[in-house]
Amino acid sequence: MPPADAHRLGAAHQARLAERGSRHRTGAWYTPADVVDRLLDRVLDPLLAARAAQGTDAVAALRILDPACGAGAFLAAAADRVARALVACGAAPAEAARRARCTVVGIDLDPEAARLCRAALAGADGDDAHAPEPTVLVADALLLVDSGAGAMGGRSAGDEGAARLTGPGGCAPDGFDLVVGNPPFLTPLRRRSAADDARRRALADRYGRAAGAQTDAAALFLLAGLRMAAPGGTVCMIEPLSFLSAHDAAAVRAAVLDGAALVGLWDAQDRVFDAAVPVCAPVLVRHGPPGPVALWTGRSCTPAGQAPAPPSDGAPWAPLLAPGRGVPVVDLADDGTVGDEAEVTADFRDQYYGLLGAVVDEDAPDPDAGPSRPPTGPPLVTSGAIDPARLLWGRRTVRFGGASYRRPRVDLSRLDPTLAAWAGRRLVPKVLVATQTRVLEAVADPVGALLPSVPVVTVAAPADRVHHLGALVIAPPVVALATLWHAGTGLGGGSLRLAARDVAALPRPAGRAAWDAGAAAFRAAQEAVDPDESRAHLLACGAAMCTAFGVTDPEPLLAWWTRRLPPVRA
What count of other Cβ atoms lies within 10 Å of the Cβ of residue 298? Predict the structure, then answer.
């Protein structure tokens, strides 16, 4: 069966899963044909070229695994390339097709997907009694294989499926030369996608700290792939872009680099799946020497240069994306962090739902309060009311609790004692930091008059320091750093979503005099009534903060930051 047929089978099966409402629960997002082809260009074609130089038998000895094979998009395309390489080495087409089929192995938890994969691999001679049966196992790959002759650690007792793969007499006794695929994306915070308690315990037993409660299952497939790979074998798995920077993936990043080298990284940038999840694909070589990381960008997998190997301590890999995304990389002259002089907190569902029923619009007085008494109480500030150094409360419509407000206020008398105490802790001098933005956006509240709305982050500090901290948060060098360290954490691939701990970890500048100038410009930008005047002060703040952080050539950084700023709004 041609690879195109495998994609049609996968698309049809995906549609059936959607109709049954199980697509999100299983994390099934099948890979487009062009993405499969471009990734195989990078990870399979070099292997085929090296084996072809050694002859037909060397090509036929390749072993390729997709541990989440679905309907077989990657495996059908890989088998087709192997067959063509065998023909180029002199094999007859029918023999090449049969031998190529023996080079690929699939695993999938979905029996129907596994059946479709077998059909895709059977080819035109699927009814030939002498043709080898495609090896496609119905199993959970994360729990199936602990190790084999070529893997890390010892095998779990009774793992018969593992014996079929990497054990003596298995199809890949020394491990696989290439492990490639698109594993399911199962967001742990979604109840319907979370693994049950028994499976969580089993994953923790198998992968230790890497199998955290919030770790996306897709990340664990990198570890499973390395355990199934031969020494020197390549692993390439499509991952959510957030894997590169998420705190909950740090243990996985550290674990994979403990036994492998990151040699390549694909940054899709474009939307690839219907789920609108930005994706990437790390390429790892088991027991490979650390060295430069080849970078590819876009759906076409275009070369984008190289980056230094990432640290092996679990630190984010997102900074590797800088060349392909045009993010300036700067060395900062820093002195401590935001957390050294401020208390950084974020609120959650209890505060959000606790405010429902207590929010009123000053432009639509509460009928119970009488026509001469407009609503009172602190303004409620949402992320939508925050621009860099500019509070838009009362200037634009915002959303809260499914309703639209122009001038939302919180009636403190309607809060229960717990929420009233929370409000008291928030009505202090502070900086409010928006999330899901292309640059870091913040406003200062030196008198403690504003209440934050989830997910706004609160940076509480003495009144005489709030403008300094506001200037720090929006500073171009800090925005560039955050963009590199937190790529993919927002709802869109280009947006930033920093948690309170991330804001607390932002660096303070070493240049105190320039920081004072930046704080003064930040204050002037926020207090200006005219939006163009505000923007002029904001740009002055950005320039001063570049000086404060010791940026020697600020122009490229300022130009990049200015392009990302939100438009001037009245």
Answer: 14
For the ranges 66-70, 101-105, 144-148, 454-458, the lowest mean pLDDT is seen at 144-148
Residue 408 host element (H or E): strand 408-410
Tokens of 158: 């009774």
pLDDT of 17 above 80: no
3-state secondary structure 289-311: CCCCEEEEECCCCEEEEEECCCC
Q: What are phi and psi of 380, to 5 degrees?
A: -95, 120
Q: Looking up tokens 């509460």, which residue turns up?
A: 366
User: What CA–CA distances, in Å, run from 319 to 215, 245, 278, 486, 549?
Assistant: 20, 9, 16, 9, 19
Quick check: bond before 240 cis, omega within 30? no
pLDDT at res. 359 = 96
Average pLDDT along the chain: 86
CB under 8 Å to 442, separation ≥6 — which residues?
386, 388, 389, 431, 432, 433, 434, 459, 469, 470, 473, 474
Q: How confident is the model at residue 494 (pLDDT cuts 50, 70, 90)?
A: low
Q: Average pLDDT, stretch 525-541?
A: 97
Instruction: Report angle CA 263, 290, 260 to the nearest 5 degrees.
Output: 70
- Tell me the Cα Rg of the chain: 27
**Angle between helical axes of 3-20 and 111-122 (0-180°, round to 10):** 160
